[in-house]
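User: quick one, sequence for these tokens?
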């Protein structure tokens, strides 16, 4: 009888020792730490893309489509692939900012300059923005020859547009100027800090000659 009891106890002890380590009392600790890390990252990155090598320069558009702001690109695996990290828009960010567009269009056709300026102006107005002024400054020599769509330009037709718009509308203007084959160069400048008092300091467009 005693021998049978000893065999039963030995079998029970062997069964307990054979249990996986995940069931030990200390095993949940790494899981809790991992969960805390995920919660901390989720508080900063409210949305992420999948891992890829091809997201360079595309994360801002990815986050904007989802209604968020781009925060950063983060490494997500040992292959050095990265993903986009999006954050919630700042509640204190101004709804509109004051921008100035300096466009350089291929010379020889004033109608093209008017059409490009009209297209950009309509983009701003449709998004609730305000056009403060548009000025045509004619044809000037470029600082150096510029090749655009396999054409070399030494002169360009300059115009300036100053406008108040949301970041979304401003992104539309930038995209339009970038893909239009008639545009040689375009510079976009943000004026002021977005406050009303700061924006009021800027009057009409002035061209220093």
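Assistant:
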């Amino acid at each position: 009888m005693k021998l049978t009891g000893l065999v039963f106890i030995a079998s029970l002890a062997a069964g307990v020792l054979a249990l996986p380590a995940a069931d030990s009392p200390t095993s949940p600790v790494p899981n809790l730490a991992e969960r805390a890390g995920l919660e901390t990252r989720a508080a900063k990155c409210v949305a992420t893309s999948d891992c890829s090598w091809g997201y360079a320069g595309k994360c801002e558009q990815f986050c904007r489509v989802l209604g968020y702001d781009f925060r950063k690109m983060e490494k997500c695996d040992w292959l050095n692939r990265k993903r986009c990290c999006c954050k919630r828009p700042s509640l204190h960010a101004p709804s509109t900012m004051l921008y100035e567009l300096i466009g350089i269009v291929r010379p020889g056709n004033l109608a093209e300059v008017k059409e490009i300026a009209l297209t950009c102006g309509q983009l701003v107005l449709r998004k609730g923005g305000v056009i403060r002024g548009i000025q045509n400054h004619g044809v000037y020599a470029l600082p150096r020859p510029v090749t655009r769509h396999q054409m070399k330009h030494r002169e360009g037709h300059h115009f300036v547009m100053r406008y108040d718009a949301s970041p979304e509308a401003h992104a539309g203007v930038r995209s339009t100027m970038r893909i239009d084959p008639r545009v040689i160069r375009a510079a976009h400048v943000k004026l002021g800090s977005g406050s009303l008092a700061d924006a009021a300091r800027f009057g009409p467009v002035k061209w220093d000659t």
